[in-house]
Amino acid sequence: MERIILPRQLVNRILYQAQSSPDAEICGLIAARKGRPQRCIQVPNVSDRPQQLFAMDPQGQIDALRKIREQGEELFGIYHSHPHSPAEPSDTDLQQVGYPDALYVIVSLNTRGVLEMRGFRLQDGKAVQVQLEIQAG
Asked: Cα separation of 11 and 28, whole Å?
């Protein structure tokens, strides 16, 4: 299984965003420098059913990608939350993969007292789970 190391500060920011929106999916991009994830950029969810789906605001996504490029970074991953379902890609997630080389991180708020965060590679309509490790410090 592929192993991905995420900095604790990055994980904490994504979890905070998810917890701050318990009834609607949050979404955003993960930027990396030299293949190492550095930061996340939240993008507004403009889905007409944000409790069940995410759709990144097109201009917000363009702006986030521009910021990543201007900082000398690259797109590493895409994240979103599932307020009412497990941290597993939905059929919609599998069908709407826009960046097949990116890591897809899903946070579930569906568990009591514990947030679940899982990572996947989504390619050819299939999800392959990766092992996420949180780097201390």
From this structure: 13
Strand pairing partners for 39? 31
Structure tokens at 48: 């007409």
Neighbours of 95 (CB within 10 A): 10
What's the predicted TM-score (pTM) here? 0.94
Boundaries of every domain in the chain: 3-135
Q: How far apart are CA 125 and CA 120, in angstroms?
A: 12
Backbone angles phi, psi at 25, to 5 degrees: -70, 135
53-82: average pLDDT: 97
Give kind and range of the element (H or E) at residue 38.
Answer: strand 36-43
pLDDT digits (tens, 9 = 90+) for 107-125: 998 877 677 999 999 988 8
Q: Strands 103-108 and 74-82: what pairing?
A: parallel
The answer to whether 103 and 117 have CB atoms below 8 angstroms apart is no
- In the numeric block, which tokens belong to residue 10? 């990055």
CATH of span 3-135: 3.40.140.10
Distance CA 73, CA 65 (A): 9
**What is the mean predicted confidence (pLDDT) over 3-26?**
95
